[in-house]
Amino acid sequence: MSIRIALVDDHAMIREGLRAFLEKNTFLKVVGEAATGAECLAMLEAWRPEVVIMDISMPDLNGIETTREIARQWPLVKVVILSVHSTTEHVSQAFAAGAIGYVLKESIGRELLMAIRAAHGTRRYLSEKIEATGWRYVASGMAKSPLESLSRRERQVLQLVVEGHASVEIAARLDLSAKTVETYRSRLMQKLGVSDITALVKFAIQHGLTTLG
Predict the structure, then answer these.
(1) Superfamily grouping for domain 3-140
(2) In whole angstroms, what is the distance from residue 176 CA to residue 207 CA?
(3) I need a labelling partner for 186 at 20 to 30 A (CA). Which of 5, 87, 126, 199 fits?
(4) pTM of the prediction?
């Protein structure tokens, strides 16, 4: 029986390439594609995938936050992160959010298939290139990300702010008042130790929260 796969990446060409590669393998079946995290969450019930291949840097709702929501709402669905980011902090964030695998985009091929098989068998998989440093970092639980101090809503506001959305736009998207958005923005900047939007954008790029970088 085929493993049911969903693809989540904001680049259509990457999704098309992944689908073509994966469907050459008879034990895999791609049941859905999404360009954003929000789209993925909206369609997950209909797709009913067993494994989700997830990018990190996406607009509106990044892959880390989407993974966290999948782990909360659909705990039996396994998430394999497929990303260009190779830092131990990205790896740590991914596993902390509930991912079961982490593969670099440069390693698409044998490693991705191995990660899918491992995920389907409820086994963790980490890309060979970053396994030594990444796995030690994850296993040790040291050097926690500053993002862990933020609430879910603060992380949502953070991503939308650094993508250039005004408080009124953010308020409409999140069903909040503009004043509440301003409060969230001030609070998250204080928690992250930044004093202006430029520093906030730099922080977001470094942590893979936005595609701006």
Answers:
(1) Response regulator (3.40.50.2300)
(2) 26
(3) 87
(4) 0.71
Q: Which fold has domain 146-206?
A: Arc Repressor Mutant, subunit A (1.10.10)
* Pairwise CA distance, residues 150 & 30, whole Å: 34
According to the 3-state scheme, what is the secondary structure of 29-88?
EEEEEECCHHHHHHHHHHHCCCEEEECCCCCCCCHHHHHHHHHHHCCCCEEEEEECCCCH
Which residue ranges does the chain devote to CATH 3.40.50.2300?
A: 3-140
Say how many residues make up the chain: 213
Separation between Cα atoms, residue 121 and residue 118, nearest integer Å: 5
The answer to whether the CB of 192 falls within 8 A of the CB of 204 is: no
Q: Which is more confident, 126 or 134?
A: 126
Residue type, 169: E
pLDDT digits (tens, 9 = 90+) for 98-121: 999 999 998 888 999 999 999 999
Q: Do 48 and 4 meet the contact criterion of CB atoms below 8 Å apart?
A: yes
> How many other C-beta atoms are found inside a 10 Å radius of the C-beta of residue 65?
24
What is the C-alpha to C-alpha distance for residues 68 and 152, in angstroms, rounded to an integer? 10
